[in-house]
């Protein structure tokens, strides 16, 4: 295919060149292949389906899990052209007349990208519409494809129904995209989406500007945190805690110490959450203390530290959460506090769950514990977890490389 893609890139997005594998991904999709894209957060996955959607005939169906993200992407696409009807979304936030308008635009072939929430896609009404004769699907994009897998960090059962629904609407190439690159997740995605022959593109998951450190969790954690934050005065950071209660408590403690901190968790009402998010983006607040409900889709480029007050449930989640630091390429300090007691607490939480889920949960937890206890390079360990070989002996940017230990040094045994 001899389309000048660089020209199109410039025309639609104003960028001079492609990042990483973008161009090869796009060509493969344009040639009619199923494509599987593994790129870390910030790698530029959206463009891999946005650009071909704008070029190809028909409408690309983009399946994406978050309504807030969807709106944001649609606004971006519609901002790049005089013709503001290029992208639309269908989800539960729209009323009947808005939905009718979207359907009309799609039928008239004006809509190049149609974002659909997975739970909307499973509704008969939408399926009937998408398979009606007036609608021409150019391809399907499954964003955040790890949601298909129980081994991912954000399992959504509706994602499992995507393939049967695609078959019903009508076959077209599928592009699956994720920043989750463990083998188990990768295999699950290809299987569930029925794309055994998909062309795979994987870029490195290394984030050289992120510094990784694990500290033993002792009684003085709050003091350590306050000291750290004060030493980094005015910088933006996120502190993750496991429970909502801890989030509230810690935010209170920080505020009592004159730190501009705010709490964020799914138990707060929508308005409070969106205000907190805005305050963080506008730097009215320096530190967000949050559960993992905070972060997905928040694109603050200069987050300077991500601290895990409690050990995360999986390394996958840990990588995603720390990945929110230093997106601008600048400094990003990632510190996790670890204790054997927390590990036991997490294991206890799992007891009421179905056996299969417990097995998965325990295995993921064990890998996190191994990361916390290792004396090898943390970067090497993390990358190995994503099936990537880190060739350097010393990364120079993790605690173990900066201060090599004499094997295990008074750490708690598992
Ligand atoms: P991902 O979904 O992989 O996390 P995004 O698609 O959100 O990443 O892209 C991350 C950022 O990179 C966005 O701000 C996007 O505009 C930018 N970007 C993507 N492709 C390019 C490119 N070729 N040149 C410059 N910036 C790009
Ligand atoms: Mg993305």
TrEMBL record:
The keyword ATP-binding applies. The chain holds residues 1 to 414 of 725 of the full protein. The keyword ATP-binding applies. It is an enzyme of class 3 (hydrolase). This is DNA helicase RecQ. Its EC number is 3.6.4.12. Keywords: ATP-binding, Helicase, Hydrolase, Nucleotide-binding.
């Amino acid at each position: 295919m001899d389309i000048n893609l660089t020209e199109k890139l410039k025309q639609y997005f104003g960028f001079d060149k492609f990042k990483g594998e973008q161009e090869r991904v796009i060509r493969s999709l344009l040639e009619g292949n199923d494509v599987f894209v593994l790129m870390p957060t910030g790698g530029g996955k959206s463009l891999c389906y946005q650009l071909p959607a704008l070029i190809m005939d028909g409408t690309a169906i983009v399946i994406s899990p978050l309504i807030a993200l969807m709106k944001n992407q649609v606004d971006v696409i519609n901002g790049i052209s005089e013709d503001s009807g290029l992208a639309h979304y269908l989800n539960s936030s729209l009323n009947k007349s808005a939905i009718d308008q979207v359907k009309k635009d799609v039928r008239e072939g004006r809509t190049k990208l149609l974002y659909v929430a997975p739970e909307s896609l499973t509704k008969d009404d939408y399926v009937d519409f998408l398979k009606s004769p007036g609608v021409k699907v150019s391809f399907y994009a499954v964003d955040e494809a790890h949601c298909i897998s129980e081994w991912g960090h954000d399992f959504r059962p509706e994602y499992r129904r995507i393939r049967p629904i695609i078959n019903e609407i009508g076959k077209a190439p599928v592009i699956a995209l994720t920043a989750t690159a463990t083998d188990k997740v990768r295999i699950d995605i290809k299987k569930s989406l029925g794309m055994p022959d998909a062309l795979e593109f994987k870029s490195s998951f290394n984030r050289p500007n992120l510094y990784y450190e694990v500290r033993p969790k002792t009684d003085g954690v709050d003091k350590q945190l306050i000291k750290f934050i004060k030493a980094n005065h005015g910088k933006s950071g996120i502190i993750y805690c496991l429970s909502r209660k801890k989030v509230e408590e810690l935010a209170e403690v920080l505020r009592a110490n004159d730190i501009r901190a705010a709490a964020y968790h799914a138990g707060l009402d929508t308005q409070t959450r969106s205000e907190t998010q805005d305050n963080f983006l506008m730097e009215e607040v320096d530190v967000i203390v949050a559960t993992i409900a905070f972060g997905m889709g928040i694109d603050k480029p200069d987050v300077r530290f991500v601290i895990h007050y409690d050990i995360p449930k999986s390394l996958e989640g840990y990588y995603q959460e720390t990945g929110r630091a230093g997106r601008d390429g600048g400094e990003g300090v990632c510190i996790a506090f670890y204790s054997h007691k927390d590990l036991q607490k997490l294991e206890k939480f799992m007891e009421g769950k179905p056996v299969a889920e417990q097995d998965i949960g325990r295995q993921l937890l064990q890998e996190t514990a191994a990361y916390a206890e290792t004396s090898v390079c943390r970067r090497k360990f993390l990358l190995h977890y994503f099936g990537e070989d880190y060739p350097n002996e010393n990364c120079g940017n993790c605690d173990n490389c900066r201060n090599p230990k004499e094997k295990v040094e008074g750490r708690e045994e598992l």
